[in-house]
Write a structure and sequence with these properties.
Strand 2 (about 25-30) and strand 3 form a beta hairpin. The protein has about 290 residues and is of the alpha+beta class. It has helices at about 55-70, 95-100, 125-130, 170-180, 180-200, 265-285; strands at about 20, 25-30, 35-40, 45, 50, 80, 100-105, 110, 115-120, 135, 140, 150-155, 160, 165-170, 205-220, 220-225, 235-240.
């Protein structure tokens, strides 16, 4: 395994295009006809961007999204135009630094819904179930155990909120927000994507517990945007760690109630290792 590169907290000094949005991890630049997404090494937990940035995290996230977008292109049209930094020419002043971090995409009108699919009852879904016997208004049988697999995946949307937590909403509320026909289409597309990736991951010794998608519209047609099946948008478990009634060590993130002190070097190194490991296990490519 190669040594991690220096962490990149922002790309603003290396891009000759307007920065139009800075998320917790991604930065969005306007190229005119297209968007340029740069994935930094910033790491977030809930509403907090943690310090320091994690070397190679952005490389892994961008490569993994590109990989999954290609794998699922026959299932769902996505926004990717290309991921070749050389095609950007003088717009990027340090192409070697950004070569695995960029994605040029089509411009879509974002649908302000997080499309969440849960295959197992865990995390926030488990907490909802303990309190209400339901998740996002979906009534569930009594006696389910933490981490138990659902007979079929469930769709539990959230209203997008760029500041703070997204808001879990019932499907009926989503239908009111975007229209019943579009809500049903997004639900069906999300579940189909999850089922494909769950089967793929299972072949590689990984359980895809849950995930989220973002969609947009181009000329009235639904298109997949943002990222897909990365450790930032999905909950991955190593198959060997799976058990009921326990807190399973996720292969990606961890929960925080408040912003912690700067991360120790050992945690930063371990996080880099985890992101690289999941990339290797899913793609077969060593970084």
């Amino acid at each position: 395994m190669t040594a991690p590169s220096q962490a990149l907290s922002t790309a603003v000094d290396y891009i000759k295009a307007p920065l139009i949005y800075k998320g917790k991890v991604r930065e969005l630049y306007d190229l005119g006809e297209h968007f340029l997404i740069v994935v930094t090494d910033r790491i977030s937990a809930f509403d907090y961007v943690l310090d320091p940035a994690v070397p190679d995290k952005g490389n892994v996230l961008n490569r993994l999204s590109a990989y999954w977008f290609e794998q699922t292109a026959d299932i769902q049209v996505n926004h990717v135009v290309h991921t070749d930094v050389e095609k950007l020419g003088g717009l990027v002043t340090e192409p070697e630094l950004l070569k695995n971090r960029i994605m040029v995409t089509r411009k879509a009108e974002r649908i302000d819904i997080e499309c969440v699919v849960r295959g197992y009852i865990t995390g926030g879904g488990w907490r909802q179930y303990q309190q209400t016997s339901a998740i996002n208004g979906i009534e569930l049988p009594a006696g389910l155990r933490k981490n138990e697999r659902f007979p079929a995946p469930i769709f539990t949307p959230a209203a997008k909120n760029d500041v703070g937590h997204d808001e879990d909403i019932p499907f009926e509320k989503m239908a009111e927000m975007v229209g019943a026909e579009l809500a049903e289409e997004l639900r069906d597309r999300s579940i189909k994507l999850y089922e494909y990736a769950h089967g793929y991951c299972a072949e590689h010794g990984i359980i895809l517990a849950d995930c989220k998608f973002e969609f947009g519209l181009i000329d009235g047609k639904v298109i997949l945007i943002d990222e897909i099946f990365t450790p930032d948008s999905s909950r991955f478990w190593a198959e060997g760690n799976y058990a009921l009634d326990i807190e399973i060590d996720s292969m990606d993130k961890w929960d925080r109630d408040s912003k912690p002190a700067p991360l120790p070097d050992s945690v930063v190194a371990e996080t880099t290792s985890r992101y690289r490991d999941i990339y290797r296990r899913l793609t077969g490519v060593e970084l």
